[in-house]
Specification:
This protein has 162 residues and is an alpha/beta fold. 33% of the residues lie in helices and 24% in strands. The protein has one domain (33-161): Glutaredoxin. The N and C termini lie far apart (43 Å).
Length: 162
């Protein structure tokens, strides 16, 4: 019976899994360059809820979830919500070419040496973290997710309203 229950849980689609409360300790530092070379820091977004997404152009689930991240971003107030898409291990050309092909309005950052990804515990891609307006990671999610889901939006809007 336990084996059947375990297999049932494994068979559930990733879409059914909720955001997980963060248990990784203090928020890791995040200061990376955009593809144009301009540095960006998570601290610059203080006062906003920030979705930090670790991804790569070769990661099919990463690319699958990008439109739903954009849909969520467009539906929320830009003064209170932002998205930082941290590319893992690739260069500005790959990220720039990808961004040019997609209609995504969020900021892309480059983690070429993988130090930031390791600090955040992004062991699998995509890996996403929700940071509250005070700069504390509140939720994490590993794998692709439909970010426009009602329960996900509710969790994020609750943080925006805090």
């Amino acid at each position: 019976m336990r084996l059947a229950l375990f297999l049932l849980v494994l068979a559930l689609p990733a879409q059914a899994q909720p955001l997980r409360p963060w248990s990784g300790g203090p928020t890791p530092a995040l200061e990376l360059a955009a593809p144009d070379g301009k540095p960006q820091r998570l601290a610059d977004y203080r006062g906003r809820v920030v979705l930090v997404n670790f991804w790569a152009t070769w990661c099919a689930p990463c690319l699958e979830e990008m439109p739903s991240i954009e849909k969520l971003r467009r539906s929320l107030d830009a003064r209170r919500f932002a998205v930082l898409a941290v590319n893992v291990g690739e260069g500005p050309r790959a990220v720039g070419d990808f961004a040019a092909k997609m209609s995504l309005g969020f900021n892309f950052l480059l983690d070429r040496d993988l130090k930031t990804s390791k600090a955040w515990g992004a062991r699998v891609l995509p890996a996403t973290f929700i940071v509250d307006p005070d700069g504390k990671v509140r939720y994490s999610y590993y794998g692709a997710l439909d970010w426009s889901r009602a329960d996900v939006r509710k969790a994020i809007t609750a943080l925006i309203s805090e």
